[in-house]
Amino acid sequence: MINLRFHIVSITAVFLALAIGIFMGSTLLDRSTVQLLESRQKSLDRKIADRVVQSNAFRAALDADDGADTAFGDQLIRPLTKGLVSAPVLFLAARGIDEDLLQRTKDDVTNAGGSVGGTLWFDDQSLLTDGKIRAAVVAAASDGTSTSGSASPGGSAEEAMTRASAALAAGLASTSDSASAPASLAALQSAGFFGWDLPAGATGVTFGVTAYRLVVVSGEGSSTKVDAMLIKLTSVLADAAPGHVTVAEMLVDRSTTGLIERNLDRQPPVRGSFVDRLRNLDEPPSVPTIDDLDRSQGRLSLLLILANVAGAVPGSFGEAPTADAPFPPMPPTQ
């Protein structure tokens, strides 16, 4: 049964509460308080406007710097480095990195006088976790011939990786005129340890009296497990071909503003995350490292390393906190 008295009391309470609220708001929040809040709001608006102006100025300056960097790479690096490199160069790269940037690097090497033997590509298949691929790679590493995928896998992926890395390093470090080195590498490729992009128009790889200068490249877009494998492979390569190995890292091509925004958002990877795996080892191999191969200065660093006598330029170069210097030294004049 509806109680009219109860509803009258409820409605009265609501209006009483509303009246009290209006009274307190009009008395406690006096005009001086309102003026103070308005003043602070205006001050905050001015500061925000100032920060927007500064941010736009910084963006404009960074865009201009990016334009200068591009011009530096296209108009200065190639003319100034023409004929600087004479060594044959082979790239070992992780799938997932910016392939256009890697091609730009290879073009720089070719323009500087070096010959590029193509790119060995490593991906998750290279980790040898698949038993059939592991068996084929172990057989190829043992006698230079690939077996069918039905062979017994035998051994762990880590053991197979050790054998495959040693065979790969021996083949890449070869200076023999015989076909043994290309044959062993072809067997490892056929087994599935890596993919191989040959230079345009080439049908094979020529090995002569000069060993290849090896450039190991990874960075943004690659698998962390593949990165770890490449770091181990680098140590093996450095032992087999001392002085002939360089390790480089590249991020995806983006503006400097984009790089800063990525860092502010704490988006991985941070520059240096790949090469730091090598730089931070207790006993790192004596190989030069570059952490900014995605930028013109990083590509110039690689050319300067390749222009020097093999093994003459140890050190860490680039922009990351772990770098020793932005650039390696100029090669001595002939």
Description:
There is one protein chain. By secondary structure, the protein is α/β, with parallel strands linked by helices. It has helices at 4-28, 31-81, 99-111, 131-143, 157-172, 180-191, 224-240, 256-264, 275-279, 296-307, and strands at residues 88-94, 115-122, 195-197, 213-219, 245-250, 289-290, 316-317. It contains ten helices and seven strands. Strands 3-2-1-4-5-6-7 form a seven-stranded mixed β-sheet, with helices on both faces. Helix 3 links the parallel strand 1 (88-94) and strand 2 (115-122). Helix 2 packs parallel to helix 10 (296-307), helix 4 (131-143) runs parallel beside helix 5 (157-172) and helix 5 (157-172) runs antiparallel to helix 6 (180-191). It is elongated and about 105 Å long. The protein starts with a helix and ends in a 17-residue tail after the last strand. The model is unreliable at 146-152 (pLDDT under 50).
Work out the helicity level. 40-55%
Give the mean pLDDT.
82
Strand-and-helix sequence, N→C? HHEHEHHHEEHEHHEHE
* CA gyration radius, whole angstroms: 31 Å
- SS content category: alpha/beta
Count helical runs: 10
The separation of the N and C termini measures 110 Å
Strand arrangement, major sheet: 3-2-1-4-5-6-7
Task: Provide a short characterization of the protein structure.
This protein is α/β, with parallel strands linked by helices and 334 residues long.
Attribute tags:
334 residues; alpha/beta; 7-stranded mixed beta sheet; 10 helices; 52% helix; 10% strand; elongated
